[in-house]
Specification:
- The chain is an alpha/beta fold and 253 residues long.
- The chain folds into 2 domains: 3-77 and 155-251, P-loop containing nucleotide triphosphate hydrolases (Rossmann fold, 3-Layer(aba) Sandwich), CATH 3.40.50.300; 85-153, no CATH class.
- The chain has 9 helices and 10 strands.
- It has helices at 47-55, 101-106, 111-121, 137-149, 167-183, 195-201, 223-227, 230-233, 239-251, and strands spanning 3-14, 21-32, 36-40, 62-67, 70-71, 79-82, 155-159, 187-191, 204-208, 215-220.
- The strands form 2 sheets. Strands 6-7-8-3-9-10 form a 6-stranded mixed β-sheet, with helices on both faces. It has a 4-stranded antiparallel β-sheet with strand order 2-1-4-5, covered by helices on one side.
Length: 253
């Protein structure tokens, strides 16, 4: 696999009255094409800030971010961003208008064909004329992911996309999202809500320290390849040892 994303000594501070507030310090890691990387860390350690930097919504105070070896500002690569909530609003649109007005402008002339194909591919075509509030969390999250994939991003960023769901259905939703991304062969960076979610979803887990966040651990995970889907990872005999290794690093922060 080729390297798609690299962060080198990236730091960022939020401006304030008088002193700045350091959010991230000297963060360095890479992501290979087709890889699924999860990021965990204590609350307030800069995880969401890190995604905003990768997306280009914020600019690093120091350090560099490269995509395919080129500064991400001029790489020509697109980045999708999936937020904690699905952002599907009843009064604004049915699922048939899962793309926003701005997204429609950026899509090809056959955007309705693209939307219908995407919705059909992931079992949503029968829901296409329904309003979001009438659907389950799984259906809403699938629709939100279809929206994120419409512009065919090279990298998909996800900021705790399952945090709004009850814990007992998170892995069921995760199975759907993970399978869609694998089918599309997408590279993904996930800010995970907890260690369990990170282990079940990712090929690799990166642990950040408390604020200012910096990388204190990186763990390669062989579990998904054997389990086949996130909801089956917890039943893997290696799950407990992976959890303990990551938890020791996480708890030290």
């Amino acid at each position: 696999m080729a390297e798609l994303l690299r962060l080198t000594q990236v730091s960022y501070s939020y401006p304030g009255i008088g002193d700045e507030t350091p959010a991230l310090r000297d963060v360095s890691f890479n992501v290979m094409e087709g890889e699924f990387v999860a990021i965990i860390g204590p609350g307030g350690c800069g995880k969401s800030t890190l995604l905003s930097l990768i997306a280009g919504l914020l600019q690093p105070g120091s350090g560099e971010i490269y995509i395919n070896g080129t500064s991400h500002k001029g790489s020509g690569k697109s980045i999708g961003y999936m937020l904690q909530t699905d952002q599907l609003i009843d009064w604004q649109n049915k699922l048939t208008r899962v793309a926003s007005r701005d997204d429609h402008k950026k899509l090809a002339d056959n955007n309705y064909v693209q939307i219908n194909e995407g919705m059909n591919s992931y079992g949503l075509i029968t829901f296409i004329d329904t309003y979001p509030s009438g659907n389950s969390e799984c259906i809403r999250q699938r629709a939100a992911l279809v929206r994120s994939l419409l512009k065919e991003p090279d990298i998909l960023l996800m900021d705790e996309p399952f945090s709004a769901h009850p814990k007992d259905i998170r892995l069921a939703v995760a199975d759907d999202i993970w399978q869609m991304l694998r089918n599309e062969k997408k590279t993904a960076v996930l800010v995970a809500g907890d260690i369990e979610e990170a282990i079940c979803m990712a090929d690799r887990v990166i642990v950040l320290s408390s604020r200012p966040g910096t990388v204190v651990g990186s763990f390669e995970l062989p579990l998904l390849g054997k389990a086949g889907k996130p909801s089956a990872v917890k039943r893997s005999p290696e799950f407990a040892s992976c959890y303990e290794a990551i938890n020791q690093t996480f708890s030290g922060q």
